[in-house]
Design goal:
single chain; about 170 residues; alpha+beta; 4-stranded antiparallel sheet; two-stranded antiparallel sheet; 6 helices; 6 strands; globular
Length: about 170
């Protein structure tokens, strides 16, 4: 393992880790990429609301006579209930009812990790394979908390880059 850390913010790290976990839990690569991106987005929304960066929106008023829609189908991943839709290409995470595109998630990860993407993904895959799926399902977010980049607390850390260490990823199974 390389001891040299990689400078990146937390969102792409969580996106990639959640995708790796989703794949280990049985989702195909394309579905996993979209699920990973959705988990990172849901976490960012929660944190943004907690920090006062995003306002809590009131649910839209229901129109008289409007039919109730059933609750959207979800997939549990890293403590989140990720809304999903079925497409011709398979299961995809949905944001505001629209299917995420695995190609755009892959481009995002390539942009954020650059030349380090393969090494980081390989380290994450090794970590995911090092524990049984049931334990991974229960402990995946705790593992992420162990290796995620350190950033300043509060609003100062919003969008900040930190150092990601491959060695810390390898040691996260604890």
């Amino acid at each position: 393992m390389s001891a040299s850390p990689i400078l990146v913010n937390r969102a792409p790290v969580l996106t990639l880790w959640a995708a790796v976990v989703a794949e280990r839990l049985g989702h195909d690569r394309d579905a996993a990429l979209t699920l990973g991106k959705a988990v990172a987005g849901l976490n960012a929304q929660s944190k943004g609301k907690r920090l006062g960066i995003y306002e809590e929106k009131a649910p839209p008023a229901k129109k008289a006579g409007a039919k109730e829609k059933g609750a959207p189908e979800t997939v549990p991943l890293l403590g989140r209930a990720v809304p999903v839709v079925h497409t011709a290409g398979g299961l995809r995470a949905a944001v505001k009812g629209r299917a995420e595109q695995p190609e755009s998630v892959h481009r995002y990860l390539q942009q954020k990790f650059g030349e380090h993407l393969d090494a980081v993904e390989s380290a994450m895959r090794a970590l995911a394979r090092s524990v049984p799926p049931k334990r991974l399902e229960a402990d995946a977010f705790r593992m992420y908390e162990h290796f995620r980049p350190e950033i300043p607390a509060g609003v100062r850390g919003w969008g900040a880059k930190g150092r990601l260490s491959l060695d810390r990823i390898a040691g996260a199974a604890g």
